[in-house]
Design brief:
274 residues, 7-stranded parallel β-sheet, alpha/beta, 7 strands, Rossmann fold, globular, single chain
Length: 274
């Protein structure tokens, strides 16, 4: 009987130690975590020993990732649902307690419907890309401001730097995120919370596979994950942008006068007025 009691006590102590170990580990919440950059980043953080909470609409894809990594947990979510965003984040807090980073990367893009002014499509793009991100940020606002620590990460794109041909919805939605991130930098900064903007170049994902044009300096999601991890964990800059060989060129172009910019981009993309 005593031996059984000892075994039960030892098992209980082991469970407590495991629980405390998991609670002491830092946690990142990633939306858009089922594919592309979000998935690659989830795996990168998991390999680095973090607890990872991933959210997306396709629960089956989330489960596949969780089956491979024991420290990745699935929290299915449609970010266009404000109430659900709050519920999911509360569930994550209840499970992990200490949330250090939120990485909001949910997005949509349909190049075939971007070539005309399709109002319904543009509204849908903004609903997911902009308002979906905003819903996610609102869900975590009080937690981080009360904690007075942590990082909120908004994923934008080089398409948000300046207007580009055939981008009536996606580019403007990313430009809006850029402006939002800059505004929130000040608002959250007063509570010692870091706001970080991620501006990837062309990354090979299911979304960019839809593109019908050549993508210069195309990189893998794993490359993006390495750059983002380094920027979030080891550095403290506002914007993480890559690859530099592309983003620095576009940043320079963004400062050009309109006449020069329009003419140059028109020639490069073959959409200049004849």
């Amino acid at each position: 009987m005593k031996k059984n009691n000892i075994k039960v006590k030892n098992l209980f102590l082991i469970m407590i130690i495991i629980y405390q170990y998991n609670m002491n580990k830092k946690t990142i919440w990633i939306t858009g975590g089922s594919t592309g950059i979000g998935k690659a980043l989830a795996i990168k953080f998991a390999k680095e020993g973090w607890n990872v909470a991933i959210s997306a609409r396709r629960e089956n894809l989330l489960k596949e990732i969780c089956n491979e990594y024991e420290n990745i947990s699935s929290f299915p979510l449609d970010v266009t649902d404000k109430t659900k965003c709050k519920e999911v984040f509360q569930n994550i807090v209840d499970k992990f307690q200490n949330i250090e980073i939120c990485f909001f990367s949910t997005g949509t893009w349909d190049p075939k419907r971007e070539k005309d002014i399709d109002v319904e499509q543009i509204e849908n793009v903004f609903k997911i890309n902009f308002f979906g991100t905003l819903n996610s940020i609102k869900a975590v606002e009080k937690y981080f401001k009360d904690k007075k620590d942590g990082t909120i990460t908004i994923v934008s794109s080089i398409a948000g730097y300046r207007g580009l041909p055939n981008s009536t919805g996606y580019g403007p939605s990313k430009s809006a995120l850029n402006n939002l991130a800059e505004s929130l930098y000040f608002d959250f900064g007063r509570s010692n919370v870091r706001v970080c903007l991620v501006s990837p170049g062309f990354i090979k994902t299911p979304m960019t596979d839809k593109n019908d044009f050549k993508m210069p300096f195309l990189k893998t999601p794993e490359y993006a994950a390495e750059k983002i991890y380094d920027g979030l964990v080891n550095k403290n800059s506002f914007e993480i942008h890559f690859p530099k060989s592309l983003t620095l060129i576009l940043k320079i172009l963004s400062f050009l006068p309109n006449k020069i910019y329009f003419g140059l981009i028109g020639k490069l993309t073959k959409y200049q007025k004849k």
